[in-house]
Amino acid sequence: MGSLESFRDEVRSWLEKNCPADLRGKTRENLPRKRYDAWVRTLGSRGWAAPGWDTKYGGGGLDRARRAVLAEEMRAIRAPQPTSFGLSMLGPTILEFGTEEQKREHIPKIARHEVIWCQGYSEPGAGSDLASLQTRAVRDGDEYVVTGQKIWTSGAPQADWIFCLVRTDPDAPKHEGISFLLFPMKQQGVEVTPISLLDGSETFAQVFFDGARAKARDVIGPVNGGWTVAKRLLQHERGGSNPEGRARGTGGSRLVDLAREYVGVEDGKLADPALRERIVQYELDSQAFAITMRRAAEEARSGQTGREIATMSKYYWSELSKREQELAMHALGTRGLGRKGDGYDESELLRTRAWLRTPVNSIWGGTSEIQRNIIAKRVLNIPE
Hints:
By secondary structure, this protein is α+β, with helices and mostly antiparallel strands. The chain has eleven helices and twelve strands. Helix 1 packs parallel to helix 3 (64-76), helix 4 packs antiparallel against helix 5 and helix 4 packs across helix 6 (226-237).
């Protein structure tokens, strides 16, 4: 393996060739879905969508120092960060709880972004009280037959597969008798009904199962022991498996550029003093959060960090991301409507849609209220 500097040169050269200018400065939220997926597949073909995973599973096999170099160079050109349910949540869970056969079957497809996943957790009667879920899976030979309903299933209309919590023992206490099951969405017995959101998108959906089939070999972890697997995946979702990554949504420099473009500059300073002060405070908070997450990552590598860091990072990140989008809309002003002359500016409409979607961040993975309750109980030791 060559030096870090030679690797840095390799990364820069590759990014220059493979990350076009129209992608830079964009995120998953403000890129068309097909464009974003194509970019992640390009990264995956190089092993850099999952740079720390073993090469035998389609990852990059990079050590910590080289992963840091890759991240630095991607940030330097503001390349979109690869993120998906598979990469950030399911992949790490399978690597921890899956059999070798399951790892070889599913992890390479996740690393190369060949399979799009959705998450089957919430139900109409089981949201914050997730363990009350009622979706059933009944064993039938080498398969399970799945019946029930999920809701707020992000990405279900586009998903190829679902990782789903199902009740395999209805007579067990509610936290027991649950299994963590994988199965394809494109089959008879699965019906997806999109839910229209305020921003005009339909990324959420209701999903109905009526005799859907799943292979018994695709239960991750023990049968009836899925609650442990489910909780671990939630920690990955909230940022516990990669605390550094939880700071990825913060964008003080993007806000500065946006404000300069739309508000203007006077005497070298942003023309709106009140907005300038709010952006400075946001940037300070953002940097403090990023430093905290890097420290948490170092502690996690040495086994020092309690898993409550996932709760704290998810809560703070989701609230910070809302502030970011609110400041962006303040800078855009009436242009946030997307109106430009006689037409509409697509990039501005995408920013507005990102703002409309941001409140969702404080709901998924456990609401901010739930996170505060957990922090009060497990971190601050405040009695109920």
